[in-house]
User: Which sequence fits this backbone?
């Protein structure tokens, strides 16, 4: 058995028993990268030398009998909008092509404390704006199930790398579905945690009130392990919540007896492909077989959620991305005479079309005279949606829906129709709008052989409940089938 | 003339408003900044709670309503000294609102409305110099905490504006929330000016930016009012615009017209939590507010009978005002406050200037000074003996004025028998002066009194000896 195929929890147990070393595991992953990367192109920056060195340090610590965390020596991939000191953080943009942060994101500090090994920085949509990773300035990442298809986005590199064995687990970020949708497209597990449970310090901001970092893995246990390692109050991010978090992977219960699962009709309706609907309902019925009850719940119309999402996200993005002005770091145009020309040309040349589109949209909705009609209304809609979710959770323990309306599409298929592209997020954005935790796990394949994703949305800080339910499915299904992408 | 002021005051917290960088003035260029205050990708602000406390103190000092729930907002605009391309400020819910400040102009108190006080971060500084091409940026000032104090358009003259600014400055110094150093840019203001004829509605206001000194504010207001009057008298109209004051050229010029007004696209800062202030903490802050300089000045005038100038001079320094009050208190109602003020503004101030020491280290206790003043007022010692005692007190021997007077034999002698002997000796020894006086040169009297003082070694009561001399000379 090749080591890169194994999950983090399996590798962790083997390393603890000293059956394998971190260097062997890391070596295996980099061999896999060397083999698969030419066709997948998941990485923007590889970190091989430092990774192997770190792996050797971990092995040395282990040899000395030092107490180590379960994640010690596990090769982790990092989305390229998360700052790792000394490695480029390009956000897949020409604007930050040469930007190397002199600081670590808090999640990286936390993983450093656990002795994780970093494989490199993963491709994404430029500044996390997109649903296919096609807006990356550097490269197009391919879906490991079908190289003619997109891996989803914006964390497409993270999902593809984990699916293809180019990383054991990975970090992504989710503003409107950017962890869950690529997880669904690539047949892996992705968790978007409750807003405020994971520090955003060192995550290059897209939409500050919606962004959350979260884990990718090939098993529920791996996702739980990585999430346990990165969550918690951070003094450097005042939007993080002060509360106790358990070690999630230690608390699994697969007992679904009496659990009430909310089924929102609107999330299975128009726009959702028949095959995806069928596969997700099959998962729901599997829960019924385990003793759970399916209850209908009313959730906000996804259309409203999508509209509110694009207004709030773009408004915040227009302000967050204003700092890329060519003055201090990153790209600066060569073509300018005045300060205004420098700003204009730097930003015109440095940003891609999708980023510019969203900056313009965001600038517009915040402009005087339009603020009330757009931003204020979107914030009002957000409040309404939070209320509707609260009501739904009176009836159901969590909500089950498809993650995305369809399975992975082909390159260029949605590129000329922005609204169609934005529809990819229609089932995921509401969890961000309401700050709720949501998880996507694979629930089978469609007739094209592409994986479909089942989304579970819970009340705030109910990650354990979602992980339990997903774990129950994983056990019942006999694990998630990645044999085609790992071979 | 109608004037409203927006005063920006740098707070003297140890660290900046959203990061742990020091916020002191004058450090080497770009040595007091970090990824957070330089707005590097992925960094987040964390609010320094001291800044909120300081702003709330100012709010209480200015009689404001404090909003127990407030938020911070982003003000978006591009400028190279603003690294995030937005300034974190407060838009629709400032910390403090609806206050007032009483200023003293020509001996009269006038109440000026305070619209609001909010917290925000300062921007960096652009550096232009002939030694290099282009412009450089110093980010040290980025994130230095500011409060912006916005007045109602209640000021009617440059003198009132000056008094308002002076009072704001004294107040922040009294509260200990700012060092109030003009030359370091701790206090800066934007000025709104309009003119109108009596009985007519207010005119269109013009905003002036870049006013960095109080004297500059006076000149800027007078210049702008004169400019507006000239425009109107020539049949023109004043348009709502922003002008930049040039202190060196003593004039202003158009920065932008109303049409070019910037749209700052304010929206709530999503990286920072709502500011919540509980009642107990607010009460604590309220209780910490000392008597403020404007009120103290008026009290010194009304209750202590000090002239305005003396009161102002004392109040300018917290320690002098406090010392003055201690002396008056130690005098237990028996000494005249004006005499105490004279000592503080005279002898004590001279020593402060010469030694640079704070009053506490000079070593003259308020009790000692009160004792000395009491002896002088009771004419137990002469004023020259008083100076001798003061000099002795400065040597910090631990001896009190009465002991010093006794030891040095400085007590003023009023015993007529003893004094008559001295007068007799002096007139005998100064026959020429006696004759001069009798010949009409009356100023010879002063010389003779002086000789008597000398002969008495400074202890004789000069008034009695003068009387005795006159009796002799005119007799």
Assistant:
């Amino acid at each position: 058995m090749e080591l890169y195929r194994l999950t983090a929890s399996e590798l962790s147990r083997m390393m603890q028993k000293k059956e394998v070393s971190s260097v062997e595991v890391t070596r295996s992953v980099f061999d896999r990268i060397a083999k698969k990367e030419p066709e997948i192109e998941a990485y923007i920056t590889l970190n091989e030398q430092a990774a192997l060195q770190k792996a050797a340090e971990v092995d040395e610590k282990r040899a000395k009998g030092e107490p180590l965390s379960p994640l010690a020596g596990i090769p982790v991939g990092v989305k390229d909008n998360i700052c790792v000191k000394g490695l480029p953080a390009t956000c897949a943009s020409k604007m930050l092509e040469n930007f190397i942060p002199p600081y670590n994101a808090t999640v990286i500090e936390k993983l450093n404390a656990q002795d994780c090994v970093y494989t490199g920085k993963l491709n994404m949509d430029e500044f996390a704006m997109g649903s296919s990773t096609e807006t990356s300035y550097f490269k197009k990442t391919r879906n490991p199930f079908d190289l003619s298809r997109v891996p989803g986005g914006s964390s497409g590199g993270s999902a593809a790398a984990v699916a293809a064995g180019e990383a054991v687990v990975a970090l992504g970020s989710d503003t409107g579905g950017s962890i869950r949708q690529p997880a669904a497209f690539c047949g892996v597990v992705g968790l978007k945690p409750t807003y405020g449970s994971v520090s955003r310090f060192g995550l290059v901001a897209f939409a500050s009130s919606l962004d959350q970092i979260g884990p990718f893995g090939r098993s529920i246990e791996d996702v739980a392990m990585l999430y346990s390692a990165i969550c918690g109050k951070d003094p450097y991010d005042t939007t993080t919540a002060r509360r106790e978090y358990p070690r999630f992977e230690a608390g699994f219960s697969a007992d679904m007896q009496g659990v009430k699962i909310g089924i929102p009709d609107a999330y299975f309706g128009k726009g959702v492909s028949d095959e995806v609907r069928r596969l997700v309902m099959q998962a729901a019925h599997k829960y019924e077989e385990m003793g759970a009850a399916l209850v209908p719940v009313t959730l906000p119309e996804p259309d409203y959620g999508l509209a509110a999402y694009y207004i709030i996200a773009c408004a915040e993005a227009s302000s967050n991305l204003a700092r890329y002005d060519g003055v201090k770091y990153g790209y600066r145009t060569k073509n300018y005479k005045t300060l205004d020309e420098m700003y204009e040309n730097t930003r015109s040349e440095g940003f891609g079309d999708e980023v510019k589109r969203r900056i313009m949209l965001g600038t517009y909705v915040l402009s005087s005279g339009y603020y009330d009609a757009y931003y204020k209304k979107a914030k009002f809609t957000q409040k309404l949606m939070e209320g509707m979710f609260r009501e739904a959770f009176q009836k159901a323990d969590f909500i089950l829906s498809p993650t995305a309306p369809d399975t992975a599409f082909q390159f260029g298929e949605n590129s000329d129709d922005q609204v169609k592209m934005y529809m990819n997020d229609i089932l995921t954005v509401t969890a961000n709008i309401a700050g709720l935790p949501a998880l996507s796990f694979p629930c089978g394949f469609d007739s094209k052989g592409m994986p479909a994703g089942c989304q579970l949305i819970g009340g705030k800080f109910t990650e354990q409940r979602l992980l339990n339910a997903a774990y129950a499915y994983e056990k019942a299904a006999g694990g998630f089938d990645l044999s085609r992408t790992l071979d | 003339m109608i004037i409203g002021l927006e005063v920006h005051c740098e707070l003297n917290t140890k660290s900046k408003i959203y990061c742990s960088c020091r916020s002191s003035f004058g450090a080497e260029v770009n040595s007091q900044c970090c990824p957070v205050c330089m707005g590097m990708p992925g960094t987040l602000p964390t609010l320094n709670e001291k800044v909120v406390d300081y702003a709330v103190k100012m709010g209480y000092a200015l009689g404001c309503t404090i909003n127990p729930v407030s938020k911070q907002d982003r003000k978006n605009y591009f400028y190279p000294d603003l690294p995030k391309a937005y300034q974190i400020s407060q838009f629709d819910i400032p910390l403090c609102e609806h206050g007032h400040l009483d200023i003293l102009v020509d001996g009269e108190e006038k109440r000026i409305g305070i619209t609001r006080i909010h917290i925000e971060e300062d921007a960096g500084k652009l550096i232009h110099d002939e030694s290099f091409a282009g412009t450089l940026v110093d980010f040290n000032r980025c994130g230095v905490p500011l409060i912006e104090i916005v007045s109602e358009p209640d000021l009617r003259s440059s003198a009132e504006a000056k008094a308002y600014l002076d009072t704001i400055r004294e107040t922040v110094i009294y509260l200990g929330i700012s060092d109030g150093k003009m030359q370091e840019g701790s206090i800066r203001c934007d000025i709104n000016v309009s003119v109108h004829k009596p009985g007519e509605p207010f005119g269109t206001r013009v905003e002036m930016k870049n006013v960095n000194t109080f004297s500059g504010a006076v000149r800027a207001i007078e210049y702008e009012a004169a400019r507006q009057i000239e425009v109107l008298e020539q049949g023109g109209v004043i348009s709502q615009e922003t002008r930049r004051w040039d202190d060196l050229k003593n004039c202003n010029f158009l920065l932008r017209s109303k049409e070019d007004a910037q749209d700052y696209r304010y929206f709530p800062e999503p990286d920072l939590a709502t500011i919540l202030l509980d009642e107990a903490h607010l009460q604590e802050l309220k209780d910490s507010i000392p008597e403020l300089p404007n009120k103290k000045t008026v009290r010194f005038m009304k209750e202590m009978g000090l002239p305005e100038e003396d009161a102002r001079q004392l109040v300018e320094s917290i320690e002098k005002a406090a010392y003055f009050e201690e002396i008056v208190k130690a005098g237990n109602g028996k000494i005249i406050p004006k005499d105490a003020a004279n000592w503080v503004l005279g002898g004590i101030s001279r020593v402060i200037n010469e030694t640079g020491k704070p009053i506490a280290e000079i070593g003259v206790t308020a009790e000692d000074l009160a004792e000395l003043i009491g002896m002088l007022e009771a004419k137990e010692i002469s004023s020259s003996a008083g100076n001798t005692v003061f000099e002795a007190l400065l040597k910090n021997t631990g001896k009190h004025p009465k002991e010093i007077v006794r030891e040095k034999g400085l007590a003023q002698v009023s015993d007529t028998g003893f004094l008559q002997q001295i007068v007799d000796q002096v007139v005998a020894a100064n026959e020429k002066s006696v004759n001069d006086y009798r010949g009409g040169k009356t100023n010879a009297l002063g010389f003779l009194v002086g000789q008597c003082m000398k002969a008495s070694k400074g202890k004789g009561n000069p008034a009695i000896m003068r009387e005795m001399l006159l009796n002799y000379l005119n007799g």
About this structure: The first helix of chain B runs from residue 49 to 61. Residues 2-197+265-285 of chain B form one domain.
